[in-house]
Amino acid sequence: MSKLERALAITLAVVAVIIMAGTAWGGMTGSRAKKLARAAVPIAIADSGVYDGLGRIRTRTADEKAAVVVVDLAFPYDSSDRQFREELQRKRTDLRTAAGSFFSARRADELRPEHEATVKAALRDTLNSLLSLGAIEELYFSEFRVMD
Known about the structure:
Layout: H1 3-29, H2 31-40, H3 43-46, E1 50-51, E2 56-60, E3 68-76, H4 82-90, H5 92-104, H6 116-128, E4 140-147
Antiparallel strand pairs: 1-3, 2-3, 3-4
C-alpha cells in the first residue's frame, strides 16, 4: 500500500468516525425531535417563541394489554416573558411527569387521531394546572403515536 493510499484510507476512516459520532450525539440529545417539534408550530405563532423542552415522552396506556404512547410536544409562548420562561425551566420535570401520567391514565382508544383535539385540550389544562406565571394556550404534536 502506497503512502497516498494509506493517507486516503486514514482520511476516510476519520470522516466515517466523525459522521458516526455526530449521528450518535444527535440521537442522544434529541436534537432531531426538538427540530420537528419546533417545525410543527405554525410560523406566525413561532415568531414569539416555542417551548420544546419537554422532549419525547414515552409511556404505556391504562389498557389491560397496554399500548405504547410516544409523543413530542411543543407550544408557543412569549419568549420576552422572562419569568414564565424561568418557570418552564424550573418545572420541566414536573411537566414531563404530568404529561406522562396523563397519557398513562388513558386507554388507547381515547388517544386515537379522531380525539386529538380533546386530548390536546385536556393535556393543556393538566399542564396549566402546574403553572402560575403564565399559561399554555395551544399544544402542537410533532409526533403522536399509539402503538398496540
